[in-house]
């Protein structure tokens, strides 16, 4: 017998006296599915930093289809219970859509089309931060939200970016800017957080999602859906429950008849709500019934970690410690995201004639690189053969059972970089300062929830969402490092923080690639991340009898090499800095390379292969002058310990 999952249909309409609202929304709860592993239930699971539930749903012809992420299935329910179930074996699927009997699946960077048992990748994004962000259908077209604009799926083909039917952006402190049908519309939302376009009715009414930040530290958010007409007039507003028991990637769906569906999770299970717009109900604001009040937020379900950890910086240590630039923090996080391995691990007895290092267990590792060069060791694996070699492992989590992927956590590695100490989410306040507003977050800052999770902040999107880097065990396979886009309400309970020794704004640190000496000149080449705005490069130089570097040339962005004249037989040290004309943003310098032209046949090439810093070695600073010091030593030996400058 099929389990009855449908609650009695109800509706709620609350009058509030908001004069801007001219119509009402009728509430109907049409379906309830309990938590569980069975066919008539939906799965949920608590991971470190996240309590996860069904990722998405779709309303279709009186049925509701759920992406039951934790059970790895697509389940279709009608009023009598489950009608069908389809296994989803692809990893990291966050959204889906059925159209013309074709199933489309969406991951962060891949889009799939499924016909029967055939699965085809129809679009793939190579840049890790440029993620797909969900489906929606309008005017019989299927749209895919993307970090760089909306794409269109038509006849199974993926079109180039085009203008979406509606574009929604936020404008601090309290404006939502909406572009629709050639019109520019404006909505006022106090202390606006994240915003989004949900969909439209056949009559042209738009559903606009908007958040209002009621507290910044820790974050607390009110959530609303506004119903707007083509002229920009607000016809109705729905106040959504502030909390959700489990995280849902896409919680709204608009049916072909224009009804708005919402998937809301509670301690008991998932409720599907249908909202219908009705002109007969004037001057109303709609709210959810009391059963949805007091629901815990999915961020608040993790167990707290112990408070004991490293002590805070003292003044002496802080003064002598090396800082980290924002660009360096983002580069470290990007390295973690791109370097992904698939590995399996099996606890076994120690192999014969092998000695185990203290604190390690023996494990047989089979690792196959997904991203990165073959044979390159994962940051979480010991160096050695990538296939079936015995190694002592101390960094892989839980060497029991199967480890699907292995990477190290970017939290403090990318956020702080230095010093090489370990701080947990409950003690990171010893080396960081809370910001007064979540809107003050800059790339390289972080959001932290003590006892729960920390995420490195990367950038704001135009619609007020946070792109963050994080290490997570959620999903299949788990234990991987990813970029993910969160709404402000999605970080409820988190505190925006800034590392004590973060340096500068977004000026990158350049990498000096070479310095080649000729009889009367030197040619320098370098590279730098120019995705952020800065004025250009300064070339600094000094001789060995000078104590200070002095700028000798200014070069605009876009140019990455230059030739300067110099005196033969004289030792020079060179460094390249990035800078901004404002004079307040600190310059970022490269390593120091040295050149000296000798009128002889002997030529010496010094290769700088030192990259160990930020806790991966004993050297704690991001730049060095080792190559220059080596050149000095060689020149002193060459000249019989005479003064190098002569």
Structural commentary:
The structure is a single chain. The chain is mainly beta. It is built from 4 helices and 46 strands. The protein is elongated, with a radius of gyration of 29 Å. The chain starts with 13 loop residues before the first strand and ends in an 8-residue tail after the last helix. Residues 1-22, 303-310, 313-320, 344-420 and 639-646 have low confidence and may be disordered.
Biggest β-sheet, characterized? 6 strands, mixed
Task: Determine the number of helices (DSSP H or I, runs of at least 4 residues).
Answer: 4
What level of helicity do the residues show?
A: under 10%
What is the averaged pLDDT score? 75
Oligomer: single chain
Shape descriptor reads elongated
- Rounded to an integer in angstroms, the radius of gyration calculated over CA atoms is 29 Å
Structural class: mainly beta
Strand content: 35-45%
How far is it from the N-terminal to the C-terminal residue, by CA? 97 Å
Strand order of the largest sheet: 1-27-23-22-21-20
What's the total number of strands?
Answer: 46
Q: Which consecutive residue ranges, at least 5 long each, have pLDDT under 50?
A: 1-22, 303-310, 313-320, 344-420, 639-646
Features:
mainly beta; 6-stranded mixed β-sheet; 4 helices; disordered N terminus; disordered C terminus
Helices and strands, with pairings:
Elements: E1 14-15, E2 24-34, E3 45-47, E4 50-52, E5 56-60, E6 63-68, E7 73-78, E8 81-87, E9 93-99, E10 102-107, E11 110-115, E12 118-124, E13 132-138, E14 141-146, E15 151-154, E16 157-158, E17 166-171, E18 175-180, E19 183-188, E20 192-200, E21 206-216, E22 219-228, E23 234-240, E24 252-254, E25 260-265, E26 269-278, E27 284-287, H1 315-320, E28 324-325, H2 326-338, E29 340-347, E30 361-371, E31 387-393, H3 411-415, E32 432-434, E33 446-449, E34 453-460, E35 466-472, E36 480-486, E37 495-499, E38 502-503, E39 511-517, E40 521-527, E41 536-543, E42 550-556, E43 561-565, E44 572-579, E45 588-589, E46 593-595, H4 626-638
Parallel strand pairs: 23-27, 28-38
Antiparallel strand pairs: 1-27, 2-26, 3-4, 5-6, 6-7, 7-8, 9-10, 10-11, 11-12, 13-14, 14-15, 15-16, 17-18, 18-19, 20-21, 21-22, 22-23, 24-25, 25-26, 29-30, 30-31, 32-37, 33-34, 33-37, 34-35, 35-36, 39-40, 40-43, 41-42, 41-44, 44-45, 44-46
